[in-house]
Amino acid sequence: MRSTSNPAFRKLPVGGAGQGQYGPNVGFNQPQGGIPGYGAPQTASGADDRPMTVDDVVIKTGLSLGTALVTGVIAAVWAMGQAADRALGPVLGVMIGGMLVGLVLSLVMIFRQKPSGVMTLAYSAVEGVFLGAVTGLFEFIKPGIALQAIIGTAGVFITMLVVYKTGAIKVTPKLTKWIIGATAGAAILMLFNLLMSAFGVQTGLRGGGTLGIVISLVIIGIAAFNFLLDFDMADRMIREGMPSKWAWFAAFGLMTTLVWLYLEILRLLYYLNND
Where are the transmembrane segments (predicted)? Predict the structure, then answer.
């Protein structure tokens, strides 16, 4: 498999149920044999052993997104109520707790390199709580910003999916290396800014203003291009016939990029709406 900047897709097993006895499966852009868009003819094996299909990825990703939306809305409404009562302590506690629990769950998934519906949905629920608490505070300060962030994130996701499916931008080894390098550079820059902030040094990278807006736009662009690698990796998992249960792992990988993108779009909108 080609490399990807998303750690969720690193070191995945090569091949799977679609190799050999099942035959090659079908990816997002490569219909061949069987029912178009649904992979090669299925066997009577268990649901988790049959080859992974596009529908599997779509359904698992939809369930993950739905879980995050439900917990996110609940957390956002609660956070706005707390903000109205000037009780920010509990909200900050939920934000930090959700961020840490989400980080732990993601690291477990990444290092286990095993698909798990329970872990993926748990990660989605926790990230929903985290994002909901953050969104609630932003919405209380700047009414309407939450809907703008959701629409913006959905727009970027759909745009990059169309770009990938139409082949407008090919995921080549050269592009992959560029995206991985840009993602690593953005991570290092953010870590540097975090460390400087801890020592009371304001770099201006995340403080709003022209520089902050430019940095956010660049990071949003990098996150958007990461979707191309995520789609390509899921496509390869399908074509190589990995068992259907691995669709949960593809959904997890897509969720990590969605969380990153949403947070950055929310930050950018706050900068732009800040008087």
Answer: 57-81, 87-111, 118-138, 144-163, 175-199, 211-234, 246-263
**CA 266 to CA 269: how far, in whole Å?**
5
- CA distances in angstroms from 127 to 25, 58, 143, listed in the order given: 32, 19, 22
Confidence of residue 8 (pLDDT cuts 50, 70, 90): low
One-letter amino acid for residue 69 of the chain: L
Q: Report CA-CA distances (Å) from 195 to 148, 189, 200.
A: 30, 10, 9
Instruction: Say how far apart CA 105 and CA 110 lie, in whole Å.
Output: 9
Domain ranges in the chain are 7-19+53-273
Listed in sequence order, the DSSP H helices in the chain are: 54-84, 88-112, 117-141, 145-166, 173-198, 209-239, 247-273
Q: Say if residue 195 is exposed, middle or buried (CB neighbours under 10 Å; 0-12, 13-18, 19+).
A: exposed
Rounded Cα distance, 42 and 40, in Å: 6
Residue type, position 30, single letter:
Q
11 neighbors 113 (Cβ within 8 angstroms) = yes
> What pTM did the predictor assign?
0.81
Condensed to tens digits (0 to 9), the pLDDT of residues 174-233 reads 999 999 999 999 999 888 888 888 787 787 777 778 888 999 999 999 999 999 999 999
Q: In the numeric block, which tokens belong to residue 260? A: 């990153």
